[in-house]
Write a structure and sequence with these properties.
The protein is mostly helical. The protein is built from 3 helices and no strands. The chain is elongated and about 70 Å long.
C-alpha cells in the first residue's frame, strides 16, 4: 500500500489505485512531480539571483550565476521539465541584459 502524504492527495474523495500497474504509476508520478518542482524552483531562484545581480550592475556575479542557470535550463529543457523555447527565451533575455551592463570595449 502506498502512503501519499502530500496535500494534493488529502481529500476524502481521492481514490487509491487498485491495480499493481496503477499503483506503480502513482509512485512514479509523485516522485517525478517532486523532482520537477524542485528543478523549477531552483531555476526560478537562479533567475532571480541573476536579475538581482544585473540590477546591482555586478557583471562578475551575474555571469557566474548565469553560467549555472544556463546549465540548469539546458538540463530541464532536455528532460522536458520546461519547454525548450522557454529556456531559450530566458537565456536570450538574460544574455542581453548582462551585455547591457558590461562596460563598452574601447578600440
Amino acid at each position: 500500500m502506498i502512503r501519499v502524504t502530500t496535500p494534493e492527495f488529502q481529500p476524502s474523495y481521492f481514490l487509491m489505485p487498485n491495480t499493481p500497474s496503477a499503483k506503480k504509476r502513482l509512485r512514479q508520478n509523485v516522485n517525478r512531480r517532486a523532482k520537477n518542482r524542485s528543478t523549477k524552483t531552483a531555476i526560478r531562484t537562479l533567475t532571480r539571483k541573476v536579475r538581482e545581480s544585473i540590477a546591482a550592475k555586478d557583471v562578475a556575479q551575474s555571469e557566474e550565476t548565469f553560467g549555472t542557470l544556463v546549465s540548469k535550463l539546458d538540463r530541464a529543457s532536455g528532460k522536458k521539465v520546461i519547454h525548450a523555447n522557454a529556456a531559450a527565451r530566458t537565456k536570450s533575455r538574460l544574455t542581453k541584459a548582462i551585455k547591457a551592463i558590461k562596460p563598452a570595449k574601447s578600440k
